[in-house]
Design a protein that fits this description.
The protein is about 75% helix and about 0% strand. It is mostly helical. Helix 1 runs antiparallel to helix 2 (about 35-65), helix 3 (about 85-110) runs antiparallel to helix 4 and helix 4 (about 115-145) packs antiparallel against helix 5 (about 150-160). It binds MU-OXO-diiron.
Amino acid sequence: MLSENMQKALNSQINKEIYSSYLYTAMSMYFEVEDLSGAASWMKTQALEELTHADKFMSYVNERGGRVILEALKKPVFSWETPLDAFSGALVHERFISASINDIVSLAREEKDFMSDNFLQWFVAEQVEEEASVSEVIRMFKLAGGAGGGLLMIDRELGSRVFIPPAAE
Ligand code: FEO
């Protein structure tokens, strides 16, 4: 059985994961308007991945006999100055998510809830990848320096990302 505090923390994380999907969908729509279809597709894939994160949390809460309570989503930002700004915003957001997961791990350890601690380790590892993949895109945009040809090459590269459901990983 989950403690009340743990259930609250997990529900809050479910909201953050679904919001992440909402934010990356907003970024995808921004890239569509900017005619960067590869970046739009990359963000759409990211948005789908975030829903699988939320789903993992929801399944876990149910398995532990808890109650999933969905909260309202806040309106995401929908416009950025440049593609680099959008990806920089994504990195800030992923760091926020990492900190949030670390806080839940701390709570699990305080409460000696080793089942939750063990469950959360998948997300601790995932956040390393999440931050690294966004940082890699930022590095590419910085190297291209906003130049037309470079931007197109990056966009093509971003468009090659495919969605891999966690079960098939
Ligand atoms: Fe679900 Fe991007 O963290």
